[in-house]
Amino acid sequence: MIQRSLTLFGGLFVLILVVGWVMGLPFTSSRLVEAAAYALIALGLNIQWGYGGLFNFGIMGFLMVGGAAVTFISYPINPDFWGSDGPMMLGRALLAFAIGALLVLAARQAHRVGITGKWKGALTVLAWFVAYVLYRSQLDPAAAYIESAGGGWVGGLGAHPVLGWLFGGVLAAGIAYVIGKICLGLRTDYLAIATIGISEIIRALIKNMDWLTRGTLTVSPIPWPTPLPQNYQAGGMDIASSLLLARAGYLVLALVILAAVMWLISRAYAGPWGRMMRAIRDNHIAASSMGKNVTARQLEIFVFGSVLMGIGGAMLVSFVQIFDPSSYQPINHTFLIWVMVIVGGAGNNWGALFGAVLLWLIWVISEPLSKAIFDMVSYWSTNVGWGAIPEIEARSAQMRVFVLGLVITIALRFAPKGLIPEVVKREG
Amino acid sequence: MTEIIFFINQVVISGLVLGCIYALGAIGITLIFGILRFAHFAHSELMTGGAFIAFLLASAFAAWGIVTPIPTGFVVLPIAMVLAAILALGIDKGFYAPLRKRGAKPVTLLIASIGVTLMVQGLIRLFFGAGSYSFFENEPKEIFRIDTSALGSTRPLVITEPQVLMILVTLVSVIALHFFLTRSRLGKAMRAMADNADLAQVSGINTALVVRVTWVIAGALGCMAGTMLALDVTLKPDLAFNIILPIFAAAIVGGLGQAYGAIAGGLLIGFAETLAVFNWTMLFRPLNAILPDWAQLPSTLALVPTEYKLTVAFVILVITLLVRPTGIFKGASS
Amino acid sequence: MPLIELKHVVGGYGGAPILNGVNMAIEKSDIGVIVGPNGAGKSTTLKAIFGLLKVTGGTIEFGGENIANSLPDKLVPRGLSFVPQEKNVFTSMSVEENLEMGAFTRKDDFKATMAWVYEMFPVLGEKRRQPAGELSGGQRQMVAMGRALMSKPSLLMLDEPSAGLSPRYVIEIFETIQRVNAEGVGILMVEQNARQALAFATKGFVLASGQNRFTGTGAELIADPEVAKSFLGG
């Protein structure tokens, strides 16, 4: 088992070297930073699915939340906004939100004053509606004002990016708590569809709340936690070395965080907490009859996993320095992560880590690789007189989706437990 | 009166058209769930793939110079549906049947269906690029404007030829499906297997045959829905991928496994989406004449902004899952 | 030649076998009753005959051919029918549709068989349009038996037909089984109400640990002091 893992990681290392040799160091160093962030995200999913058996198909939503959080914390302050009426108007909207929330809560307690059954239901619906109208009546003018006269959007707080990452985790945790409270009682496939639905709602919100996130106008440049290549260049360094040095700095920070997370969850999983989680996953009913609070534990695990997703999403956004809500797609940001965990080995952290790096490399090199293949075929077909393949560039760009589908299909058929499967310990 | 005609144009017709498309897609999902017990995500690709098959056939017809009185898309639809059914059978045989044979859990099949989604979508993009296509390159899209001035409206009732055909074809398919499920031996066997697969097997029902019939129906209806959507808007590789969630919402709201529920759910989601983004001021504008100045209607009075149209389906979905997870018609619970 | 003959059948769900050599022979005129403690392999024997679990040894001869590991859609047309213990009706379908499903493998006209079933169970004729899920436990058992009879079987297998029924219905179901047998259908059933069932059984089999312990006519087994002591509760 260990030997198999070592062989696989050795192979992965060779693959990285080959990619580095063929595609060049600047390309490869960027991909490695991203791979580290994806590894963090895949660990988050591994906690939820591999440990907890929770079917989270809304990863994209958590990545977006993390990304929005890091722009909010680390982007420079927008003085135009703070100097306008915007903050006050937003305050009123917040107040309206609070009043609305109180209304709904009050309606849900209506049975205490003798309103029950259908009437209580009707009252609750009415309360929701009133709260919604109240909130919209305050928020809509505030949003319109900020977008036109109030500085365009709220801007950031100008704090350190690592604080932004942490905030990404916190925000993701909060949202995961709400989603978990609502959805965790659902059956597996319903949970999958519900989480996809919620992540689409999050995407629609972030994409369209221009006053808060700048929406499709995108936010950039987002600062780095480590020195940028430009900082090194200002010191007289040449471009190639500055790129490498800066990315190496970022990579080291990402790896430190990844290692710390790995260590923490491995320790937790080996302890009583992990045993309980496995018990719950493998036998729901038995675990709950033994007095374990299954729902609370599942909520815990859902929140933990989502925190890692939020942090990973924030790290990705910081690294590319741009937050573009329209670049988020379920294929790239939900399904890709799933393929990473399944191919790597659900339930095994090393497997998830391996899968994340491997799949990210496959994902990024399938485009140049298919272009090379197409070029070769095109050259050959031109020579035999069949003419060249048209639009090779555009077609190669689409190949990675196909490759991803192919990889998951093959994995499910031939290695359903993943390349580095969960180690099943026989206890007691 | 003008306002009511506007309401019919904006809500009734577009809600009905959208509802028909959702319903046809949701029937396939619900039948597959009823028989095979897994959420088939790749249904979107059966729809998109079917639409591209129809598009290729229509282009071939145009190239051969065949001119049809109704839009070619509808003429080639039966052939496209047969091909899409074969595609569906092939996908099952190639990807799902081996996993079922191994006794894989429904969750594994769900993930496999994601893999199929990615592969089919990748292939479609590989051959057709990421751009969009129209069925009406070589023929006009006829638009009927029914003069309603006799009713005192200054606006005509507007409906396109594809929309009329679409509603008719959906109606015919739904009635045909109803008779299939309640009158034919195989249809009843399908209901029996959805009800109790073990007992169906014990009764000697050829379950493999029922599974094949299910894929044929799902593929054919999916092709119909996809082609119609492409005829109503435009054809692109992510045509149905973008609406697979509202379709799932329709199937769940109707109760997974319930064919009639899927139809009701489809129409419900279709109308809910159009009603939610409808600007009510357009309907109630005449009231401004009798309302006092301070209570004049604002220029836009929609429940949700248009950008959030798709989220309406998700909100309905989440509420359904919370309040009545079995759907409005009691769906399969296991 | 008996209608069905099990010779030293071994089988299980993968892993350790549950049946370790079961022998049985049933004639067309027989009512065979299998009794025994929990986990003895009673229901498993019926399932093994019906191809619902893997038979790894021995033979099951039916109509002169070895049918071991054949699937139901092949067995039903050959004259074998099975009524499972639980979930044995299609709850969302009407009584008549349930019966039609029993006749799925038949290509000929089955109206006469349906009339025969309604004659046997008049209450089903009255409720033919009602969903089977709305019927009482006893009536459901009748639907299940009616469904199994629709394929005109030569051997009807029943898994604990009296389970969960009130005493009045138990008597009724047992009477019906004897009536069906009188019409020329061989019966092989598993029963918990052992004493009651053996009273009318022409063949009785006591299974324990997946093997025959005692075999004889129903009356013989009831009379056997050892059987009575160990398996019939004294």
TrEMBL record, chain B:
Keyword DNA repair on entry: no
GO biological process: D-alanine transmembrane transport; L-alanine transport; L-isoleucine import across plasma membrane
Subcellular locations according to the entry: Cell membrane
InterPro entries registered for this protein in UniProt: ABC_transp_permease (IPR001851), BCAA_transport_permease (IPR052157)
CDD domains attached to this UniProt entry: TM_PBP1_LivH_like
Bilayer topology: Multi-pass membrane protein
One GO cellular component term: plasma membrane
Coiled coil: none
Parts of the chain that traverse the membrane: 12-36, 48-67, 73-95, 107-128, 163-181, 209-233, 239-256, 263-282, 302-323
Pfam families linked: BPD_transp_2
Keywords: Amino-acid transport, Cell inner membrane, Cell membrane, Membrane, Transmembrane, Transmembrane helix, Transport
Gene Ontology molecular function: any one: L-isoleucine transmembrane transporter activity
Keyword Ligase: no
Family: Belongs to the binding-protein-dependent transport system permease family. LivHM subfamily.
Entry-linked PANTHER family: BRANCHED-CHAIN AMINO ACID TRANSPORT SYSTEM PERMEASE PROTEIN LIVH, HIGH-AFFINITY BRANCHED-CHAIN AMINO ACID TRANSPORT SYSTEM PERMEASE PROTEIN LIVH
Name of the protein: Branched-chain amino acid ABC transporter permease
Organism for this UniProt entry: Devosia ureilytica
Lineage: Bacteria, Pseudomonadati, Pseudomonadota, Alphaproteobacteria, Hyphomicrobiales
TrEMBL record, chain C:
Any coiled-coil regions, as ranges: none
GO molecular function, one term: branched-chain amino acid transmembrane transporter activity
InterPro entries: AAA+_ATPase, ABC_transporter-like_ATP-bd, ABC_transporter-like_CS, BCAA_Transport_ATP-bd_LivF, P-loop_NTPase
SMART domains hit by this protein: AAA
UniProt key word RNA-binding: no
Cited Gene3D superfamilies: P-loop containing nucleotide triphosphate hydrolases
Domain ABC transporter: 4-234
Pfam families: ABC_tran
Keywords: Amino-acid transport, ATP-binding, Nucleotide-binding, Transport
Single GO biological process annotation from the record: L-amino acid transport
Family per similarity comment: Belongs to the ABC transporter superfamily.
UniProt name for this protein: ABC transporter ATP-binding protein
Annotated source species: Devosia ureilytica
Top-level taxonomy: Bacteria, Pseudomonadati, Pseudomonadota, Alphaproteobacteria, Hyphomicrobiales
